[in-house]
């Protein structure tokens, strides 16, 4: 299944970020801990040249612990400051002020030499749609200062948020990049909900997810739904649908409903802590 999604508003958002980057000291990029490379927009590296960088592995509670640690080491080896967070629960948020100051150490020392004191660090928060930027900012600021939602594309404009005397954040809309060179990237983004479901064949997507889970996390489907993982991915999806009452008239399995259910359970972490890509494959 070949997936591409780059609606027009993303071009406008990217242009806006290019204009704003000159005001910025630090680029904070949120990636999804389940797919840290596939959810990392390659355009940001070009945009953020010569800026301090911080990568946050968000939704780390949904990914495997060991895989999280390996990804932390991977990004640190590439020169990024890195931290694991869970924006919804607030895990890891309190320690970020220190991480930000460390990431901007050179800038702070440069300001001191010039006699500039107490100028707040200006940080741009970037990431793909539905990676949790707005939830992160609300958790970091301790108040609901941005609109949040579980659909891609909720943040449309730009807004500055003063966190404290040390840090100001610029929120930005979620943007993808014009073409996914690797088809697997599009599929993984679709798995986690960063591509609009309305343009997808969710039955086909759920079958690909079943194939992956059965291969890399055997037993995760049977543990959740009480169905056998023998047979074809289609028969497994049918079994899940039958167990969960996904039926159409005439007692026929509603595959679309079953696929929606499976994807929703995966995205919410109800199938367990699952990482979809591993640092060892990118060494």
CATH architecture of the largest domain: 3-Layer(aba) Sandwich
Q: Separation of termini? A: 27 Å
How many domain units? Answer: 2
User: In total, how many beta strands?
Assistant: 8
The CATH topology of the largest domain is what? Rossmann fold
Secondary structure: helix percent: 25-40%
CATH class term of the largest domain: Alpha Beta
Identify low-pLDDT runs.
152-156
How do the SSEs run, as a string of H and E?
HEHEHEHHEHEEHHHHEEH
Order of strands, main sheet, comes to 3-2-1-4-6-5
- What is the molecular shape? elongated
> Structural class of the secondary elements?
alpha/beta
Q: Report the average pLDDT across residues.
A: 88
Give the radius of gyration.
20 Å
Helical element count?
A: 11
